[in-house]
Amino acid sequence: MGSTLTEATDPWCLRPGESAQLLRGHPWRRFVVLGDSVAEGLCEPVDGYPDLQWADRIAAELRGVRPGLAYLNLGRRGLRAHEVRATQLAPALDFAPDLALVVCGGNDAFRAGYDPDAVDVELTAMVDALRDAGAEVITVGMFDVSHSPAVPAALRAGLGERMRLLSSRTGALALRLGTLHVHLTDHPLVADPSLYSSDGRHGSARSDAIATAETLRVLGARPGTATGPPGARPAP
Questions:
Q1: 44: pLDDT confidence band, cut at 50, 70 and 90?
Q2: For the sheet containing 70-73, what is the strand order?
Q3: What is the rounded average pLDDT for all residues in the chain?
Q4: Residues 183, 230 contacting (CB under 8 angstroms)
Q5: Distance, CA of 233 to CA of 99 (rounded, Å)
């Protein structure tokens, strides 16, 4: 990433006016977020990019169209998928959301004993419960953090295999359950070191800005959300 690159000049981020176009007429009034540190927001600061984390940014953009939007972020760092379900699903349902973002499984995939079937069970239970309660659900195939320079070389291949398995399984689950799905794992910048924090586990403010753009483009492509076409992915 060039030293002068900022969100305003980054071709992978939102362009001026794009968010308003994408979200024009969106129906959501109550937005809840469930998950681990990715949901909570632990992005590392990057010059030229705001420190506001991904889920908070989505909420802010939704409020730009519907100022009365209620927002609850239940995300907590360090949780595995079954812990997210056990501690966050009930309060999420009590919030009566009409839009929910569910992002977890990364802490499971960081372990050599990652059980994709068990994570699928937890994700399915959360998505089904939220959809049964009337919420539209967003799921995510996360950036493959094994590309972070802070990940030891000896661990990179195994971690990358598990992160990609988590992503593919979540994508298949999204297709089966009918969620809105944001696929970041094969983003053209996935191997760019500027997307990752120095701890080797989380993203940077740049990755959160890019993830926000990709999420809003998915929301904008939903029938009935935007009156115009969603922003096309730019050339790098």
A1: confident
A2: 70-73, 30-35, 99-103, 136-141, 180-183
A3: 92
A4: no
A5: 24
Q: Residue 71: name the closest of 49, 53, 51 by CA.
A: 53
Q: Is the CB of residue 53 less than 8 Å from the CB of residue 3?
A: no
C-alpha 208/C-alpha 43 separation (Å) is 7
- DSSP string of 110-166, one letter each residue: TSTT--HHHHHHHHHHHHHHHHHTT-EEEEEE---GGGSTTS-HHHHHHHHHHHHHH
d(C-alpha 116, C-alpha 108), whole Å = 8
Query: Would you state the structure tokens that stand for residue 36, as one six-digit string?
Result: 């681990």
Task: Give residue 2's pLDDT.
Answer: 44
Is there a contact between 44 and 113 (Cβ–Cβ < 8 Å)?
no
Nearest to 22 by CA among 193, 231, 187, 176: 231
Share of the chain above pLDDT 90, in %: 86
- Written as one letter, the residue type at 212 is T
Structure confidence at residue 1 as a pLDDT band (50, 70, 90): very low
Measure the CA–CA gap between 181 and 215, rounded to whole angstroms: 8
Structure tokens belonging to residue 27? 């129906």
**pLDDT for 226:** 58
The average pLDDT across 195-213 equals 92
